[in-house]
Design brief:
The chain is of the alpha/beta class. It contains 18 helices and 18 strands.
């Protein structure tokens, strides 16, 4: 079929050549025959290769020879042209006849070819379908084999990971059959106890016998509770006897498998060696116990030192104060004032250290009692007024008209913070004034935000030393320590106290201009009426005022306190402190009798009634706690008499111990006149007289 197709194509090319030969021959002339002859030979080159075309080509060649003959006549040229055209027509007719025959042959061949192709396609389709089905089956088989291989590989990797986990976490595995009581211990489980694989049989008894006798009951109870589903999981820590004879601590975890009836049929778990952790815990426990013993020893030491130091300090401060009330030369007064200042500075150091010790021990307790904000500010200012007077400083106090002047909180701690801020202001202000401002911001019907600020015109704080403030045992610089003294604990303690109350403390300062320290505390309001309300104190302390002028004169008939001869019993074993207490209390218009121990105090109370008792806690024969208990139980009147504890103990719990013993209130030594004044005002100023005035002996 391809040869016929080729011949058809050749005939088509011959016909195309013949269609172009006629015009070429017709235009041939002798003068320009060369170009046309070349064109003629190019067109007939393919025809000359076909034998069937040779007769026609020869006739054409003859006509072309005549056309290119220079001697040919016109008649000969015309005849040659006619002969050439006739030869072209004859060749064309011959080729067309062949073309028709070739086309018919080609059509027949195409019909057979198409038929064969259709049959071949059908056979090929059937074969392809068969092959496809077979291939699909093979692929499915291969897929199943690959899936099976993947599953096996995943199982292998899972097993490998599980083994790595077991080896990595160093756990021993056990598998217990609850039905047969059979158990399997892993190699690591046995190795933890120091055994080789074949040295320890896989028996439940081997495990039970190795549990420490003190732990056996607890472990058994935990397992039974878990199997009864009383607890969500089985976790236990206990000791197992090792091959060496020592006990190993293990952390046991287990998970049970239950059947449809809810019975445990199997339990699998692990043991983790926690011996090192337990040893560390025991070491930490031992260290903690030692630290607690050391802390108790420290507390006892501080308590003893506090008592031993405060007792003579009470005498030094008290006697110096009495000495300053007498007639002294200028030099003597300066010396006495120096003694008093040094004693007060030493007392401040002792108080700071004790407060810091309380805070560090986590024993800082806060009261929640009604108090008057104005009163505690006044107390603090009054206490610092003498120091300000000596330096020529004025102290001014501004307080807004509180809508809830009676608040609930810890007035002692708030007073302590104000005292610390005010003391720093006096200490670091060489000239000018100090202003204390107290404001309240109402939060709701039950709470107010108390804002207290202390402003001074002192030396200020350098910017590069600001970070040292509020740090324990820190001063702005070493020069400050030498010049102004102190422990560097005042602000740190104040910060701890304010934060314990849920408040905040801060400051602003400019070197050479002054500082303002402030704090905020959130307090509850009280339904009780406030003791006093102040809008503005413009001159609480001025340079020309003396310290005594700030104390109310209880003996002055014009004073707010009417003259009354109150009977006071002082129980104190130290002779110096007896004298100090007697002289200070007498200043407030009272008669004073002194007992040297608790037994004498009980005896005097039984013979004479008293309006108030100041009771030292530590005395020979009978201490203050025992004496208070005896007095309270003596009669009905005694149960309401104010008994004020006087003690040099100032550690955590001392105040509460006094209250628990039946005492009414508490004064820490050394006693200041203001402390005694506060107790007399609080418990006697508005009370009825207990004793008959005529029965009062003349004590001197």
């Amino acid at each position: 079929m391809r040869s016929v197709q080729k011949r058809v194509t050749v005939n088509v090319n011959f016909l195309n050549s013949l269609s172009m030969i006629g015009p070429v021959v017709r235009t041939m002339q002798p003068m320009v025959g060369g170009t046309k002859v070349a064109e003629y030979h190019e067109l007939t080159a393919a025809l000359r290769e076909n034998a069937a075309m040779l007769p026609f080509i020869q006739a054409l060649d003859a006509a072309v020879a005549t056309k290119t003959n220079e001697n040919a006549t016109p008649q000969a040229l015309h005849l040659a042209t006619e002969q050439a055209l006739t030869a072209v027509e004859a060749a064309t007719s011959h080729l067309r006849t062949q073309q028709t025959e070739f086309s018919e042959q080609l059509r027949l061949k195409w019909r057979h070819t198409i038929t064969l192709q259709v049959v071949s396609c059908l056979l090929a389709g059937l074969l392809a379908l068969t092959v496809q089905r077979h291939d699909k089956a093979l692929r499915q088989s291969f897929t199943m084999q690959e899936a099976l291989g993947d599953q096996q590989e995943q199982l292998r990797k899972s097993e490998e990971r599980w083994q790595l986990v077991l080896r990595g976490n160093n756990d021993g595995i056990w598998d217990w059959n609850a039905k047969t009581n059979e158990v399997i211990f892993s190699h690591r489980w046995k190795e933890m106890l120091g055994y080789a694989e074949d040295e320890l049989p896989n028996r439940t008894e081997e495990w039970e016998q190795r549990i420490h006798p003190e732990d056996r009951g607890r472990v058994q109870t935990a397992i039974e509770s878990y199997l009864r589903r009383e607890i969500p999981s089985y976790v236990a820590e206990y000791r197992l006897l090792a091959k060496s004879g020592a006990y190993k601590w293990v952390l046991a975890r287990g998970q049970a498998v239950w059947n449809e009836e809810g019975e445990a049929i199997r339990m699998v778990g692990s043991h983790t060696d926690i011996t090192e952790r337990k040893e560390n815990e025991e070491a930490l426990r031992h260290a903690r116990d030692e630290a607690q013993v050391a802390n108790r020893a420290k507390s006892a030491f501080l308590a003893n030192m506090s008592h031993e130091i405060r007792t003579p300090m009470n005498g030094i401060i008290g006697l110096t104060g009495l000495l300053l009330e007498g007639r002294l030369t200028l030099s003597q007064r300066e010396d006495a004032e120096g003694i008093l200042d040094s004693a007060e500075a030493l007392l401040d150091i002792i108080n700071d250290i004790l407060d810091y010790s309380k805070i560090e021990a986590g024993k800082l307790t806060l009261e929640n009692i009604p108090f008057d904000a104005a009163s505690i500010v006044k107390d603090a200012v009054t206490l610092l007024a003498p120091q300000a007077t000596k330096k020529g400083l004025a102290i001014r106090v501004a307080q807004d008209d509180l809508s809830h002047a009676s608040l609930i909180g810890d007035p002692g701690r708030i007073r302590q913070v104000i005292l610390n801020l005010l003391s720093n202001a006096v200490k670091f202000t060489p000239l000018g004034y100090i202003r204390v401002a107290v404001n309240s911001i109402s939060i709701d019907e039950l709470h107010v935000l108390l804002h207290v600020s202390v402003q001074d015109t002192g030396v200020g704080v350098p910017k590069d030393r600001v970070a040292l403030l509020f740090r324990e045992f820190s001063q702005v610089d070493s020069a400050t320590t030498r010049k102004y003294g102190g422990t560097g604990l005042g602000l740190a303690i104040s910060k701890r106290i304010v934060e314990a109350m849920g408040g905040e403390i801060g400051f602003t300062s400019e070197q050479g201009v002054g500082s303002t320290f402030w704090f905020n505390v959130r307090l509850r309001t009280s339904q009780q009426q406030p003791h006093a309300r102040f809008s503005e104190w413009t001159r609480l302390a001025q340079p020309e005022q003396s310290a005594d002028s700030l104390l109310p004169d209880l003996q002055n008939p014009d004073s707010s306190h009417p003259r009354r001869l109150w009977r006071v019993l002082v129980a104190e074993d130290n002779r110096v402190n007896q004298k100090v207490a007697r002289e200070v209390i007498k200043k407030f218009g009272c008669t004073v009798e002194v007992a040297s121990n608790g037994s004498e105090a009980v005896d005097l109370w039984s013979r004479f009634p008293y309006d108030i008792v100041f009771m030292d806690c530590q005395m020979p024969v009978m201490d203050g706690y025992q004496a208070t208990a005896v007095i309270r139980n003596s009669n009905a009147v005694a149960r309401s008499i104010p008994i004020i504890a006087m003690t040099a103990n100032a550690m955590p719990g001392d105040r509460q111990r006094c209250l628990d013993a039946g005492m009414t209130d508490y004064i820490a030594k050394p006693m200041r006149p203001l402390d005694i004044q506060d107790m007399i005002e609080r418990y006697l100023a508005n009370s009825e007289r207990v004793c008959d005035q005529s029965s009062v002996p003349n004590y001197t």
